[in-house]
Amino acid sequence: MPKDTLRITEIFYSLQGEGKTVGLPTTFIRLTGCPLRCGYCDTEYAFYGGETRSIDEIVQQVKELGAHYINVTGGEPLAQKRVHELMKTLCDAGYHVSLETSGALDVSGVDPRVIKVLDVKTPASGEMAKNRHENYDCLTKQDQVKYAICDRDDFQWSKQHLQEYALSDKCEVLFSPVQGELKASDLANWVLTDKLPVRFQIQLHKYLWGDEPGK
C-alpha cells in the first residue's frame, strides 16, 4: 500500500456501545485484518477485503460525520502500523480518540492521548495464549481492560488474572457477558457476590441493533 494509507472495512457514525463513553455519538473507524481468531468474534467480516484509504481521506470523512468521539477498532487495528499516524493526526485535530485492541500486539507506541481499551482473551476465546502481558505496564488511569466472559470457568479465570496483574490498580476493568453464551444476570450476580472492583457492562449496540454491521 502507498505510504500514507490504511485498509479500512468501514467508517460509520453510531452510539458507543461500551466503556466510559457508552451511549455517546461516536465515529467508528474499523480497520481491516486481524491475526487472532476468537471463537466468539462478531466482526469476521473485517478479516479480509476493505478499501485502501489515505489518512487525509479518513480524517475528512470523520470531519463530515461530525462526532467529537472517535473509536479506532477492527479487526485488530494495531496490525496496520500506520494506525499510529492516524491516531496522532486525529488527536492533533482535537478529537477524543480511543483504541480497541486485542492486547496481543505491542501498545507501547500508542500516542499517550489515546485511550487504550485492551480486550483480554479468556480461555473460551481460544486465543488466551496471545495475551501480551507486557502491555499491562503501559496502562494508565485513563485506559481500560475488558474481559468478554462466556461461562463460569471464564469468570474464575478472569478474576484470577485480574488479581495476578493488579489491573484494577492500573486502570478501569470491565466485565462483559458474551451475548448468546452467558446470561447477563448471571455475570452480574457473580460480580456482586465476589465483590469485584470492576464495572459490569452489556454491549449497548447489540441490545439496540444485534450484530448488524455499521451499527
TrEMBL record:
It catalyses: 6-carboxy-5,6,7,8-tetrahydropterin + H(+) = 7-carboxy-7-carbaguanine + NH4(+). GO terms for biological process: tRNA queuosine(34) biosynthetic process. Mg(2+) binds at T43. GO terms for molecular function: 4 iron, 4 sulfur cluster binding; carbon-nitrogen lyase activity; magnesium ion binding; S-adenosyl-L-methionine binding. Binds 1 [4Fe-4S] cluster. The cluster is coordinated with 3 cysteines and an exchangeable S-adenosyl-L-methionine. Binds 1 S-adenosyl-L-methionine per subunit. Its EC number is 4.3.99.3. Substrate binds at L15, Q16, G17, R30, T73. S-adenosyl-L-methionine binds at Y40, C41, D42, G75. Keywords: 4Fe-4S, Iron, Iron-sulfur, Lyase, Magnesium, Metal-binding, Queuosine biosynthesis, S-adenosyl-L-methionine. Pathway: Purine metabolism; 7-cyano-7-deazaguanine biosynthesis. It is an enzyme of class 4 (lyase). [4Fe-4S] cluster binds at C34, C38, C41. The keyword S-adenosyl-L-methionine applies. Pfam families: Radical_SAM. Residues 21-211 form the Radical SAM core domain. Homodimer. Catalyzes the complex heterocyclic radical-mediated conversion of 6-carboxy-5,6,7,8-tetrahydropterin (CPH4) to 7-carboxy-7-deazaguanine (CDG), a step common to the biosynthetic pathways of all 7-deazapurine-containing compounds. Belongs to the radical SAM superfamily. 7-carboxy-7-deazaguanine synthase family. This is 7-carboxy-7-deazaguanine synthase. The lineage of its organism: Bacteria, Pseudomonadati, Pseudomonadota, Gammaproteobacteria, Thiotrichales.
